[in-house]
Each structure stands twice: as structure tokens, then as C-alpha cells.
Automatic annotation (TrEMBL):
Keyword Signal attached: yes
Record keyword Signal present: yes
Signal peptide limits: 1-36
UniProt organism field: Clavibacter nebraskensis
Protein's recorded name: Secreted protein
Superkingdom field: Bacteria
Entry keywords, A to Z: Signal
Amino acid sequence: MEEHMQPCPNTTTISSRRRPTLLLSFALAGALMATAAGPMPAASASATLDGDAHAQDVRGALELIESVPDDVLVQGDAATAAWFLENGPGARAGAIDDRGLVTTQASVLGCTAAIATVIASTAFPAAKILKVKKLIGELGGVAKAVQIFWGASFSYEKLQAVGGAALALAGELIGITSIKEECFS
């Protein structure tokens, strides 16, 4: 590193009101970080897919989205946020102080920063989560969606060639230029 660069602090304070959105943004950010490893032959895809960290990140993010009950989502954004506070991956992490602030450690770079910024500023509305869940179902579930993304090397251009629900799902997750530039090759 150059001498003029300062290390980033790793402790961030966020309001508990934004906590579900930020937790989802970090899950999605990890899910969408990609390398240009290239597609693997179908015979070896399953074994390699299980050991691929990026594929596991995508799986975790899509499983998080799938875990939100539809009856909660149809109640709207406030009910969804409350559900995430009680049931999301961060429900057991971090401490809420007397001002309602949560202190959490995070390392935010490139793709993660782009997604966290977009989702934290515009929210990830319940209607969008319902649409993502529908697209995951059209692809045959989380495992199949991850396999398709992985087979396309998490490349947006390759996903455009695949088209259909895979492209629509990628579009829902990365519909902002900054995320597209940071997360997909």
C-alpha cells in the first residue's frame, strides 16, 4: 500500500431502524462478489460448486430472501423490517445501546459498498423481495439459481446470454449501475 493511504476503521454504528436493510445488503453483497473463474464442465460442476466461496455466498443470500414468509412480505416494508429484526441473520449479532444504535464490525469494499449504499439509501422493499422469491422459484430453487449464476461465472454479460428468469433475477439484485460495475464483469 502507498504511505498516504489510511486504514479504514472496522467499527460502524448504524441505527436499529436500518439494521434489516443493511444486513440484507451485506448478505447480497457477499453473494454478488464475483471472480472470472469461467464455467466448469457439467460433470464436475456440482463438486466444485459446493466448494466455491462465491457460490456459497450467493446461496446464503438467496436462502435469506427465500426465508422471509410471504404473509410477512404482503404486509409491507414495516412488517418485513420487523421480521428481519427478529429472524434475520443479525438478530443474534451486535448489541443495541440505549440510543437504539447497533455497533457491528464490517469490512466494506467494492461490490459490498455499492450494494450497501444502494439498499441502505433506497431500501429493499417487500415487493422486490416477493419478486426475487418468484424468480428463484422459476429457476427451480436456490440451488439451481446459484448453479446458473456460477455457470455464468457471475458475469452479467454471460447472464444476458442465458436470459429468462436468470437475467431477471440478476437484474433485480443489481439493477443499479454502480452495483453492476462493482459486482459483475
